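Re: beginner question about structure tokens

> Can someone show what the tokenized structure looks like for a real chain? I only ever see the sequence side.

Sure, here's an example I had lying around. Input first:
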Amino acid sequence: MEGLCYFANTIRVNLKLILQKNNDYATIKKIMTKNIVIFDRKMNNGKGVKAANLVKIIKGLDKTKTFFFAEKSGETKEIGKELSGILKPQKGALVFGLKGELGAGKTTFLQGFAKGLGIKNKIISPTFVIMNRFPIKKGKFTNFYHLDCYRIEDSKEMKNLEFEEIINNSKNIVCIEWPEKIKKALPKNINMIKFDVLEGDKRKIIIDYGE
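And the corresponding structure tokens:
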């Protein structure tokens, strides 16, 4: 947890610099390099993201994959929390698809994700109601939609939920568990997050930007 928290705080501090300096990559990379070494050593078995690539990811310019390793469920939540804290609006909703077997940590991740958005409601998978909406009271986003499509048999069922309207609204953040069940209804710019179960509560979390 120590390694993750250190990395998370580093993102918070340097995100302000990114916003202030805009495209001053040289300055940002110089400041972040030392911290990324710590991230590599403690969080990613020595195979973390290089400072240059991390800056591009935060600015949303680099479609690449980022790997995280969580030792326990608390760290899975923390990764989700930090991801939601650096999101910026785009054309259409920000849509994330969460892939992984039952119990892989998808909902746990979203509990932290929602907390990062300032949502205090209890987050559980909407397995039977399919979708829950939570208002976001701070920042540039208005709504957080949490969908569980495990019981969906055909993508056409999403029309009843006004899904297309939801994903076309740039004020929305949409997270979908079991996105493979509604593949035909997904937007092209969806970001996929894959959860691999290692052993016990340990998880490998792969965030694919722009799949």
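Each token stands for a local structural state, so reading them left to right follows the chain. The chain has six helices and seven strands.
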